[in-house]
Structure formats: C-alpha cells, structure tokens
C-alpha cells in the first residue's frame, strides 16, 4: 500500500513539473528551429519536396495508422532541448476526423498546436506555434517510414517542403514514448515520456489549456 501511495505522489509531481514546462519545450520542436538560424549562414539548398512521394503501400499505411492510434493519451517525462534539461508533458486527443491532436495555450499569447492527420500521401504532422513578439509559424511534415526496432516501433516525419531541414521521430516501447527532433541533421530536442493513467487526464488538460482560452485554429494542410 505504501508503495502505491508513493507511486501516486510521484506521478502527480511529475505531471505538475512537466505541464509547467511543456509550452516552452513544445515550441522548441520546430517552430523555433528556423529562428535559431536567423542571422547565421543561409539554410542549405532545398531537397526535392516530399509532397511528390508516392502514397505508402497498404501494409505500411496500416503500420503508420496503428502507431498514430498509440499516441492518444497523456505522456509525461523529461529530456533535452535548446533550453537545457527540462520536464515535458503532452496530451493527444482524438478528433472527429480521426486525427490525433495536442495543443496548449498559456493565456499570455503563446499557443502550440500539433495535429497528426491523414493527407493524400498518408499521415501528416502539422504543427503551428504562436509566440509573443515573434508571430505564428506553421510547418507540415509527412510520415516517411515506420519501422520495428529492437526496443519497439518508430514513426518518422520529415518537413514536407524541405525534407533535410527538419525530422521528428516518435518511438514507442513498453508504455514509453520517445520524441526526438533533428534540425538540419543535428539533434534539437529529445524527450522520453511514459504514458499517464486515465485519472491524470483532467489535471493535465487543465494545465495545458489555460482557463478562458480557446483551441487554436486548426492549421490548413
């Protein structure tokens, strides 16, 4: 019984810490990535657009869909980012059209919207971030592969217009989710999270969605 109580307290503490920092770390996934290069060397030349990729075969599309389904729910943990070591939390919820969506709004001008949804060429990840004094940036990534690894399964997305610019990988294993992002081939963020129990969802949702705010507008494909 004592172990159960300690575990419950540990979950609650992890949830509070992670939710407190989730907005900043979500913003660092991609929307702040292009800003990091402002004033430095020009970006590399564009690779062929990923939009020209052929639709995945049925088996591959089914694997991708199964992994998107596994995203649904709350996740909390910690990892590295441009802001240093920090806790991280995210809540993916199902939309009527089958998309998996996570969003956060601090009520002070910072809004993050992540949406994994179906497109003509397969699954897409559209992320939009609004930051005070910076504005709004939106990126659309396309799923290019799913693969089984020794530790589980992974789903990889690349920027639809500049595949070599940004890559985001979602890796699943035994109740764990590892989210990594690479900017121009270099590590950008790396978060390891564990799935939160259903009873923690209301608290996580209230922390991520500031009172008096509304869901950010769904970005267009």
* Beta-strand content: 35-45%
CATH class label: Mainly Beta
Question: What is the C-alpha radius of gyration, as a whole number of Å?
Answer: 17 Å
What helical percentage do the residues reach? Answer: 10-25%
The total of beta strands comes to 10
The separation of the N and C termini measures 50 Å
Task: Summarize the entry for a quick read.
With 221 residues, this protein is of the alpha+beta class. The protein has 4 helices and 10 strands, in the order αααββββββββββα. It has a 10-stranded antiparallel beta barrel.
Detailed description of the structure:
The protein has 221 residues and is α+β, with helices and mostly antiparallel strands. The chain has a single domain, classed as Beta Barrel (Lipocalin). The protein has 4 helices and 10 strands. The chain has helices at 2-29, 33-36, 58-71, 201-208; strands at 73-81, 84-94, 100-105, 111-119, 122-131, 135-149, 152-159, 166-173, 176-183, 186-195. A 10-stranded antiparallel β-barrel has the order 1-2-3-4-5-6-7-8-9-10. Helix 1 runs parallel beside helix 4.
What's the SSE blueprint?
Elements: H1 2-29, H2 33-36, H3 58-71, E1 73-81, E2 84-94, E3 100-105, E4 111-119, E5 122-131, E6 135-149, E7 152-159, E8 166-173, E9 176-183, E10 186-195, H4 201-208
Antiparallel strand pairs: 1-2, 1-10, 2-3, 3-4, 4-5, 5-6, 6-7, 7-8, 8-9, 9-10
Helix pairs in contact: 1-4
């Amino acid at each position: 019984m004592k172990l159960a109580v300690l575990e419950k307290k540990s979950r609650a503490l992890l949830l509070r810490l992670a939710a407190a920092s989730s907005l900043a770390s979500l913003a660092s996934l991609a929307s702040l990535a292009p800003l990091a290069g402002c004033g430095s060397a020009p970006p590399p030349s564009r690779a062929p657009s990923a939009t020209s990729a052929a639709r995945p075969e049925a088996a591959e599309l089914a694997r991708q869909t199964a992994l998107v389904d596994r995203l649904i729910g709350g996740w909390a943990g910690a990892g590295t980012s441009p802001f240093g070591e920090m806790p991280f939390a995210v809540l993916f919820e199902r939309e009527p059209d089958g998309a998996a969506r996570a969003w956060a709004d601090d009520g002070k001008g910072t809004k993050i919207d992540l949406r994994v949804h179906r497109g003509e060429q397969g699954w897409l990840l559209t992320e939009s971030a609004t930051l005070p004094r910076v504005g709004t940036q939106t990126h659309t990534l396309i799923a290019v592969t799913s693969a089984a690894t020794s530790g589980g399964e992974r789903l990889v997305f690349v920027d639809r217009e500049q595949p070599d610019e940004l890559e985001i990988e979602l890796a699943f294993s035994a109740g764990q989710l590892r989210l990594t992002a690479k900017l121009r081939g270099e590590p950008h963020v790396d978060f390891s999270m564990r799935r939160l129990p259903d009873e923690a969802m209301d608290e996580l949702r209230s922390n991520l969605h500031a009172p008096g705010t509304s869901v950010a507008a769904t970005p267009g494909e």
